[in-house]
């Protein structure tokens, strides 16, 4: 084969190989990046993203951000709904260059970081839920999307996270999360990070759940042993 044909073939193969990496959309899922005892946990689904940083041993919450995102020119553009460090950095928007190769996501944050995708694990309750009201449902007023005060639960691939925040002031009230199971109407949370009290890490809490239309009826006892009944509305 003539040299110029070899060169053209090389350029074509390089282009074909590189093109899907540049233009690839980020698959829905949970991604982890770990450095010694510090874990970065990324949840991406339905145009929404959360990025949480915490230490595993000893347990220590560091930071959490989240919001709606779009992908443009190989950048993640995130309009934040919450930022636990907002009082210090005043950041409401993020622009994060990324590349994707298979199930490995490379993000250029303060430093370049590689995230590996967790194996998919579909369960009941997967999705994003907003706290609506205390149950039982008797037609009372509900908190909706238009209310700036929100508590979000994000469940995906066996991982859960709740976040309490205020969208107009960016006031952050707290977050916690870890692994979960939802089976036979029993929902179990295993806490791996908790911004309000690191000593809560390691606790396992069991609740009952029932889906009624677009509502999740969440019942059982809270961390103080008191009866609780919450209704969460499906966001997406």
TrEMBL record:
<protein>
    <recommendedName>
        <fullName>Membrane or secreted protein</fullName>
    </recommendedName>
</protein>
């Amino acid at each position: 084969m003539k040299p110029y044909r070899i060169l053209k073939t090389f350029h074509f193969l390089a282009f074909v190989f590189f093109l899907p990496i540049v233009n690839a959309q980020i698959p829905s899922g949970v991604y982890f990046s770990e450095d010694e005892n510090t874990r970065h946990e990324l949840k991406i689904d339905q145009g929404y993203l959360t990025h949480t940083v915490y230490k595993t041993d000893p347990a220590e919450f560091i930071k959490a951000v989240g919001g709606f995102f779009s992908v443009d020119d190989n950048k993640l553009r995130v309009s934040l709904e919450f930022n636990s460090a907002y009082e210090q950095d005043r950041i409401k928007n993020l622009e994060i260059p990324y590349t994707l190769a298979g199930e490995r996501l490379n993000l250029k944050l303060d430093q370049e970081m590689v995230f590996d995708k967790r194996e998919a694990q579909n369960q009941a309750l997967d999705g994003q839920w907003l706290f609506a009201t205390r149950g039982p449902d008797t037609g009372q007023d509900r908190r909706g999307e238009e209310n700036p005060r929100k508590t979000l639960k994000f469940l995906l691939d066996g991982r859960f996270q709740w976040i309490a925040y205020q969208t107009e002031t960016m006031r952050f009230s707290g977050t916690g999360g870890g692994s979960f199971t939802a089976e036979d109407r029993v929902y179990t949370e295993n806490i791996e990070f908790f911004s309000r009290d690191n000593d809560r890490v390691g606790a396992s809490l069991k609740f009952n759940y029932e889906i009624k239309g677009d509502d999740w009826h969440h019942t059982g006892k809270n961390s103080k042993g008191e009866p609780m009944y919450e209704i969460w509305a499906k966001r997406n």
